[in-house]
Design a protein that fits this description.
28% of the residues lie in helices and 19% in strands. The chain is α/β, with parallel strands linked by helices. The strands form 4 sheets. It has a 4-stranded parallel β-sheet. It has a two-stranded antiparallel sheet with strand order 3-4. It has a two-stranded antiparallel sheet with strand order 6-7. InterPro entries: ThsB__TIR-like_domain, Toll_tir_struct_dom_sf.
C-alpha cells in the first residue's frame, strides 16, 4: 500500500538525491506531497510564508523521508520539519497522526562511511554506530528508543536494525532498491508509536 510522503532535505546539496528517490518510488511518487524541481521558489518569501507552504505540504502525509547529508545541520528547516511531522496537529475537526520517519544517508565519494563508525561487537560481528554529532538531536534522540528495547544482545547493546529505532537510517542505494520496504516499515512503526519513546521537544541542532 502506498503512503503519502514528504521529503525533508538540504536543498543546496541533496536536491539531486531527492529526484532520484522520487524516480525510485515509481508510480508511488504520485503520493509524494513535498516540493519538486517544478515547485515555486520560496527563498525570497517570508519565514511565515515558507512555514505555511511547508505545513500545507506536510499535513496529511504519513511518512517523512529525511535525507541525511553532510551539511544537513546547517539547514534552517530540516529540524523543524521533523518535529512538525512527529507531532499530532489539529486542523479544524481533524487531527493528524505522528508520521513514520526514515533517514536516507547520502553518499559522499561513493560511500556512506562519512557518518559511520565501524565496530566489532562482543560476538565478533561487525556493527555500525552513527556519528550523532552530524545529526540533529531530534534524529538521534529517536534512535534506539523502542519500548521495550528490541535488542539482539544486551551485553554489546546491539539493537534490531529495522524496529529497534523509531527513525531507521539506511544507505541511499539500499533505499532506492527497496523504497516500499522502508516506507512501509516507517508507517507500521507510526501505527504502533506507543512501542517507542518518541522525543520531540529536544534542543535545536547546531552547525558542525
Amino acid at each position: 500500500m502506498a503512503h503519502k510522503t514528504f521529503i525533508s532535505y538540504k536543498y543546496s546539496e541533496a536536491q539531486g538525491l531527492r529526484d532520484e528517490i522520487l524516480e525510485a518510488l515509481g508510480d508511488d511518487a504520485t503520493y509524494y506531497m513535498g516540493e519538486t524541481s517544478d515547485s515555486p521558489d520560496l527563498t525570497d518569501t517570508s519565514t511565515e510564508n515558507i512555514k505555511k507552504n511547508l505545513t500545507d505540504m506536510m499535513y496529511g502525509t504519513s511518512v517523512t523521508i529525511v535525507i541525511i547529508s553532510p551539511n544537513m545541520t546547517d539547514s534552517k528547516w530540516i529540524d523543524w520539519e521533523i518535529k512538525y511531522c512527529l507531532k499530532k496537529i489539529s486542523r479544524k475537526d481533524r487531527i493528524s497522526q505522528t508520521n513514520g520517519v526514515v533517514g536516507v544517508i547520502m553518499e559522499q565519494n561513493g560511500t556512506c562511511d562519512w557518518i559511520k563508525n565501524h565496530l566489532i561487537n562482543c560476538h565478533g560481528t561487525p556493527v555500525i554506530k552513527f556519528k550523532d554529532e552530524l545529526l540533529f538531536p531530534v534524529i538521534y534522540k529517536n534512535r534506539y528508543n523502542s519500548n521495550p528495547p528490541l535488542k539482539h544482545c544486551d551485553s554489546c547493546n546491539t539493537w534490531d536494525l529495522m524496529n529497534g529505532s523509531y527513525i531507521t537510517l539506511v544507505d541511499e542505494d539500499e533505499f532506492k532498491r527497496y523504497p516500499t520496504k522502508f516506507i512501509d516499515n516507517a508507517f507500521d512503526k507510526s501505527e504502533n508509536e506507543s512501542n517507542y519513546v518518541i522525543s520531540i521537544n529536544v534542543e535545536e541542532g547546531t552547525s558542525v
